[in-house]
Amino acid sequence: MSSGFTGGCLCGAVRYESASEPRITVHCHCEDCRRSSGTGHCTHLAIPEEAFSISGAVTFFERAADSGNMVRRGFCPSCGSPLYSTNSGMPGMIAIRASSLDDLETVKPQMVVYASRAASWEHIDKDLTAFPEMPPNAARPAIART
Fold first, then answer.
1. Domains of the chain
2. What is the pLDDT of residues 86-99, one digit of tens each?
């Protein structure tokens, strides 16, 4: 993969760019991701906050995760496209929604979290490391490293 990637919302009012490759790409089957995505899971690309630039207005919805950390989800106020989120438990990191990428082939998922909450009709790739819930911090060094 080449360094960096771009994306944006459905209506084009919001555009973003990452100057960094993702640290990790994760499928998440938690209830919040399911409900905010409109499908069975979300796919997130974790990048350092300093590598992220955005243009256009973004609206946020904030809610506590299972861990008690606050998650802020950013979306386009015009078309409603989910774009990215931040988590108070991972300061300095941005989680880009893969659905907002210009090129979906930019990344390949590496891990599945909250696999125990996946719907029976969801396919979980047996080649990916899967955790029944969120892995402990020790299992997430690729996300946190700077």
1. 5-131 (2.170.150.70)
2. 999 899 999 999 99
